[in-house]
Amino acid sequence: MNNKTGITADDRIIIALDVNSFDKMKNIVDMLGDSVSFYKVGMELFYSAGSQAVTYLKEKGKYVFLDLKLHDIPNTVEHSIAAVARLGADLITVHAAGGREMMEAAVRGASEAAKESGRPRPKILAVTVLTSFDDKGWAETGGQLPILNHVLRLAKLAHESGVDGVVASPREAAAIREICGEPFEIVTPGIRPSFAQSNDQKRIATPSRALQDGASRLVIGRPVTKAENPQKAVSLILKEIRGE
């Protein structure tokens, strides 16, 4: 997709719409225009604006990453996934810590919704360890294995459970790619372009590094949405990953 500024969108880049109203979301999407083709709708926006956020993005021809991180008993997750899948989201998250049966149920729910709606089945991604964790914080929660080992264990389980990919920090991407192969999706938050601050993310990487290490898609929020010129920030990120 091309816009009047000549920026060509890259669907490996997912812009996080971490805002608390439909109007704020709409302003960002309108501002970025065709320079962005993929957006993340997380808990803050979904709980504030509801399903209309997803509906609006789909009507604009965008891809939607619905990041609700579902984590409950298998039956509840299966029916919850079916409900949100009917909105037309392209990627939906559950927590890998919910276990094999829960992840399998999530895939069933997505398949059921796709069959009913006639749409392609949304891809299910399993969240491994949140990128806000560092070793100290992880130990405080009772983590027995090092973060990398735990992430790899969950990624292997997710792969065996039939989900389409995982959400993990860019630092684990290469190791996940090695054990899970292609075409397993590895979606990485904690992406900070060379011009941006790290903020509250701990396990971070630049866009180009994350892609080199095996990430499929990159989730980028504040470096774009809080930039003085968001469209210019997107352009800089695209130039960075293309080596321009």
Structure write-up:
- With 244 residues, this protein is of the alpha/beta class.
- The chain is 44% helix and 16% strand.
- α7 (147-160) packs parallel to α8.
- The protein starts with 12 loop residues before the first strand and ends with a helix.
- The relative contact order is 0.14.
- Residues 1-5 have low confidence and may be disordered.
Strand order across the largest sheet: 1-2-3-4-5-6-7-8
Q: What portion of the residues fall into strands of 2 or more residues? A: 15-25%
Number of helices: 11
* Class from secondary-structure proportions: alpha/beta
First-last Cα distance:
19 Å
SSE series: EHEHHEHEHEHHEHEHEHH
* Largest sheet properties: 8 strands, parallel, barrel
Helix content: 40-55%
Identify the overall geometry: globular
Low-confidence stretches: 1-5
What is the residue-averaged pLDDT?
A: 92
The total of beta strands comes to 8
Q: How large is the radius of gyration?
A: 17 Å
Considering the chains and any ligands shown, give keywords for the structure.
16% strand; alpha/beta; 244 residues; 8 strands; single chain; 11 helices; globular
Entry summary:
Helix 1 links the parallel strand 1 and strand 2 (38-42). The chain has 244 residues and is α/β, with parallel strands linked by helices.
